[in-house]
């Protein structure tokens, strides 16, 4: 069925997408999330289409009626309408061409309805564009706000640990090395050290994210701009910057931006690093809360959820365990992103969809788990002074001080 026939068959509760989306739906029968379940990506592609339409109108490449209808349809999608029309899995072959065409077809069909004219997905909605410059641009637009959310939440975890250090400024507990008794450490130093471990991870994520503001829109298929009107790249970027409110710039090398997934993978790696840092903190809290009678039992975590189906009164450290599992997912996304980046060939990296999914899910989970970790675990944790005092009996402080004055041999424990 050609596009005109498709439009002729539209009515009331119709399917807006067309033949290319339908073919992709048959070709990619995956169980993973659909585009409709990742609306930030769909809305980002729609934003690119709106900017492109406005640029093409200004350059005389698109008539006012069709251009205005494309803009109106794109705004509907950005407002959350028509999400059910975006039926494809996020992970797909073709480097995102099917995602681009799914949006093109939906906007073209809806613009045709609004204008009463034939609006074509390729000739009009995709005019002056290629999947190869649309998708990297849209991915950046979708990912940057998620990075910002994650950064705010990570700062929240660090702040909650700093506050916990202030709360227990006068308490000293037994430090451990290699899970063996060592020497005392102030609880304030313990928590401040945890907070300090988060700061470099925040900086790394911020730095990685800064590279995404340079986008290749207007580079079309291989970075040369072939098929776009003179001035399109500048005009479209200006419109997109105004539309999104992001400080976007033209990629210094469009061919590099089209050919490499390295900037996206760098963000994935930075998110994974942040996840590892959180997991390390979560493991320490989980270990210090172990028991409480038969373990270390120095920390009491908030009892947010009953933890056993058979043992009444048992409460598991579910929030630290959630943090740890999110770190595993982030590590997996990083492994997939590295593999996808390594196999890019020549003028394009066709494996962007799997990197995109890892970023959308990973950054969202990093943000949410950071919020939960701070609010439902760290803020309410309590140090048990009785257990802390009892365990200090294992301190090697005296032995260390004796060794410093009388020599190591004289300070060795008789029972060691």
UniProtKB/TrEMBL annotation:
Q: Name one GO molecular function term.
A: aspartate ammonia-lyase activity
Q: What is this enzyme's EC?
A: 4.3.1.1
Q: Which InterPro entries match?
A: Aspartate_Ammonia-Lyase, Fumarase/histidase_N, Fumarate_lyase_CS, Fumarate_lyase_fam, Fumarate_lyase_N, L-Aspartase-like
- Ranges for domain Fumarate lyase N-terminal come to 16-328
**Keywords of the record:** Lyase
Q: What class of enzyme is it?
A: lyase
Stored PANTHER family: ASPARTATE AMMONIA-LYASE
Q: What is this protein called?
A: Aspartate ammonia-lyase
């Amino acid at each position: 069925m050609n596009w005109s026939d498709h439009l002729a068959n539209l009515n009331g509760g119709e399917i807006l997408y067309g033949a290319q989306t339908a073919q992709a739906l048959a070709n990619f029968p995956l169980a993973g999330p659909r585009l409709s379940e990742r609306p930030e990506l769909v809305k980002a592609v729609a934003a690119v289409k709106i900017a492109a339409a406005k640029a093409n109108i200004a350059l005389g490449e698109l008539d006012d009626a069709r251009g205005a209808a494309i803009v109106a349809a794109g705004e509907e999608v950005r407002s959350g309408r028509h999400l059910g029309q975006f039926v494809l899995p996020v992970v797909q072959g073709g480097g995102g061409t099917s995602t681009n065409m799914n949006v093109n077809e939906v906007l073209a069909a809806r613009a045709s309805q609004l204008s009463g004219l034939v609006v074509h997905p390729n000739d009009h909605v995709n005019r002056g564009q290629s999947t190869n410059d649309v998708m990297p641009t849209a991915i950046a637009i979708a990912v940057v706000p998620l990075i910002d959310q994650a950064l705010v939440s990570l700062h929240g975890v660090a702040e909650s640990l700093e506050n916990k250090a202030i709360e227990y400024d006068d308490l000293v507990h037994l430090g451990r090395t290699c899970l063996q008794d060592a020497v005392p450490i102030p609880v304030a130093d313990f928590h401040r050290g945890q907070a300090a471990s988060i700061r470099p991870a925040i900086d790394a994520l911020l730095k990685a994210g800064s590279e995404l503001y340079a986008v290749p829109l207007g580079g079309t298929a291989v970075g040369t701009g072939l098929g776009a009107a003179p001035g399109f790249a500048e005009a479209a970027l200006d419109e997109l910057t105004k539309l999104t409110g992001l400080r976007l710039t033209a990629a210094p090398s469009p061919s590099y931006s089209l050919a490499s997934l390295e900037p996206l993978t760098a963000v994935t790696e930075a998110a994974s690093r942040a996840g590892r840092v959180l997991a390390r903190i979560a493991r320490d809290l989980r270990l210090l809360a172990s028991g409480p009678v038969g373990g270390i039992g120095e920390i009491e975590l908030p009892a947010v959820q009953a933890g056993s189906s058979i043992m009444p009164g048992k409460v598991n450290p579910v929030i630290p365990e959630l943090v740890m599992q999110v770190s595993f997912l982030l590590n997996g996304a990083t492994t997939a992103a590295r593999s996808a980046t390594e196999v890019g060939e020549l003028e394009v990296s066709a494996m962007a969809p799997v990197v995109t999914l890892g970023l959308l899910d990973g950054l969202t989970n990093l943000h949410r788990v950071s919020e939960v970790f701070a609010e439902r675990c760290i803020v309410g944790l309590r140090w048990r002074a009785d257990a802390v005092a009892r365990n200090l009996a294992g301190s090697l402080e005296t032995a260390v001080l004796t060794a410093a004055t009388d020599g190591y041999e004289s300070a060795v424990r008789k029972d060691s």
